[in-house]
Automatic annotation (TrEMBL):
The DHHC domain is required for palmitoyltransferase activity. Keywords: Acyltransferase, Membrane, Transferase, Transmembrane, Transmembrane helix. GO terms for cellular component: membrane. The chain crosses the membrane at residues 56-80, 86-105, 184-207, 227-248. Residues 141-267 form the Palmitoyltransferase DHHC domain. PROSITE patterns: DHHC. It comes from the Eukaryota. GO terms for molecular function: protein-cysteine S-palmitoyltransferase activity. This is Palmitoyltransferase. The keyword Methyltransferase does not apply. It is found in: Membrane. It catalyses: L-cysteinyl-[protein] + hexadecanoyl-CoA = S-hexadecanoyl-L-cysteinyl-[protein] + CoA.
Amino acid sequence: MQSSNHRLRDMEQHHPLLAAGTDVEAGSLGTGVIVGGPNAGHSAGNRTVWFIQDSCGMVCATMTWFLVLYAEFVVNFVMLLPAKNFWYSLLNGATFNSLAVLALASHLRTMLTDPGAVPKGNATKEYMESLQLKPGEVIYKCPKCCSIKPERAHHCSICKRCIRKMDHHCPWVNNCVGEKNQRFFVLFTMYIALISAHALGLSGMHFFTCIKVQWNECSDFSPGVSVLLLIFLCLEAILFLTFTAVMFGTQIHSICNDETEIERLKNEKPTWERHMRWDGMKSVFGGPPSLLWCNPFTGLRLRRLLVVTQGRRGGSEFSV
């Protein structure tokens, strides 16, 4: 499709022509505008929840919740409630359960937040003419979702959308990690690492304490059951701590260098103005450093979640 004013190229690799924050016609995905169904364009009043219908991702996300809840069960009912020291149980219980709630909330925010999807099918002649491009200027279209690709956007074969500043697709959160939900993914990895380390510490203390006395006095469960539950919890905590600590470190490194994982793997040369170190952190978490950076509930509006089912389904995501 060509005109005297611009040219359109079908390419997966692209160059900066649309700013990362640029919205498009009715398909705008800015704050308060919704994704869902086969068409990206919705009015601001039709608020929906972003959700990817991928079987592998949904299984992994369910497993994540199951493992966190299992850890809560073992920590609370096997180790803390039977403990004789009231303040030990109270302080550790409050700390562990608070971190677990924050971890699960961060997981939900990552999974149900639009990562920065580019509207489908906006590569129309009418829209391109409305851009008022200079003569000879080239814009790039994704041949897979028929979208004009902004700078630093990449196509996700699972989400079936182009995602702004796509870092990677994570099956454990059943979503892409991109421009709009990276902060929640970073919080998710941080809180999972913290509760894993806390669970390992509590397990070590429990084993040390129970060796001195009879196992029947340490737990309301039989010694054999208690040991099996604790061993599985320790294995889970070691695996989760290793994975999430590494992922947390790589995410912070990427943010501080303003380079996504895809851009690093493809060795893409930056054509954008890079936000280094604290500037990168501020752009992802919003505003100067504060405790709000650690709050996964920041910016959450309950009215967005209390919506009537639209009944419109299609593609890999649906409206709720």
